[in-house]
Amino acid sequence: MSELPGTRWNITVDTVACIGSSMCVAAAPRHFVMDEADKAVALAGTVGPDQAVLDAAETCPALAITVTDAETGRQLAPEA
């Protein structure tokens, strides 16, 4: 497996765009939960690199999850 970029990642969830599919929870249960309105919530805004976080952002059908490198601001997922 190739090395993951960065040392810290920021996770943001667009709760307006979120459709509540819970695919992020299935992909990365250590990082996401669903709230009482069935919207995704990141358990932490900043995390260490974890492929599951990238997978969650890439599999979100609403593209509501964005992962960026905390130091550079470069978007890591979803891929453009």
Question: Can you offer a commentary on this structure?
Answer:
This protein is an alpha+beta fold and 80 residues long. Helices cover 18% and strands 26% of the residues. It has 2 helices and 6 strands; from the N terminus they run βαβββαββ. It has helices spanning 23-27, 51-59, and strands at residues 9-13, 32-34, 40-42, 46-47, 65-69, 75-77. It has a 4-stranded antiparallel β-sheet with strand order 4-1-5-6. A hairpin with a 5-residue loop joins strand 5 and strand 6. The radius of gyration is 12 Å and the shape is globular. The mean pLDDT is 95.
Looking at the structure, what is the overall shape?
Answer: globular
Radius of gyration: 12 Å
DSSP helix fraction: 10-25%
The percentage of residues in β strands lies in 25-35%
Distance between the termini: 22 Å
Number of separate helices: 2
Instruction: Catalogue the unreliable spans.
Output: none
DSSP strand tally: 6
Mean pLDDT: 95
Series of secondary-structure elements, N-terminal to C-terminal: EHEEEHEE
| Strands ordered across the widest β-sheet | 4-1-5-6
Largest sheet: 4 strands, antiparallel
Structural class, from secondary structure content? Answer: alpha+beta
Which short descriptors sum up this protein?
four-stranded antiparallel beta sheet, 80 residues, 2 helices
In short:
This protein is an alpha+beta fold and 80 residues long. The chain has 2 helices and 6 strands, in the order E-H-E-E-E-H-E-E.
Task: Reconstruct the topology from this structure.
Layout: E1 9-13, H1 23-27, E2 32-34, E3 40-42, E4 46-47, H2 51-59, E5 65-69, E6 75-77
